[in-house]
Specification:
mainly beta, 7-stranded mixed β-sheet
């Protein structure tokens, strides 16, 4: 069983900061990549940021320079530092992990339950 638990969401004023965390637990052998996606009402889910096991990162153009993704491989945890938040950042943020379970030959993707981020103007 795999569980991704997100935390750190909440209500913040424009220009403020939040730090999201996502901890993966279960019978995990290794994690190839982890990322953050977001979905606003009436919009499709989009990639915000991703990071590989080697530390390579990529960001959506809308958040580049404001958000920073990082991971602690020993804790199977990924973080998203969100600075200079804007109202358009308001969305449910979902953690994603591509990982191997013990005794598994294939990597599979898993999703967290989502955490609400609301940025007021």
């Amino acid at each position: 069983q795999v569980q991704l638990v997100e935390s750190g969401g909440g209500l913040v004023q424009a220009g403020g900061s939040l730090r999201l965390s996502c901890a993966a637990s279960g019978s995990i052998l290794s994690i190839n990549a982890m990322g953050w996606y977001r979905q606003a009402p009436g919009k499709q889910r989009e990639l915000v940021a991703a990071i590989t096991s080697g530390g390579s990162t990529n960001y959506a153009d809308s958040v580049k320079g404001r958000f920073t993704i990082s991971r602690d491989n020993a804790k199977n945890t990924v973080y998203l530092q969100m600075n200079s938040l804007k109202p358009e950042d308001t969305a449910v943020y979902y953690c994603n992990a591509d990982l191997y379970l013990y005794y598994s030959d294939d990597a599979q993707g898993y999703w967290g339950q989502g955490t609400q981020v609301t940025v007021s103007s």
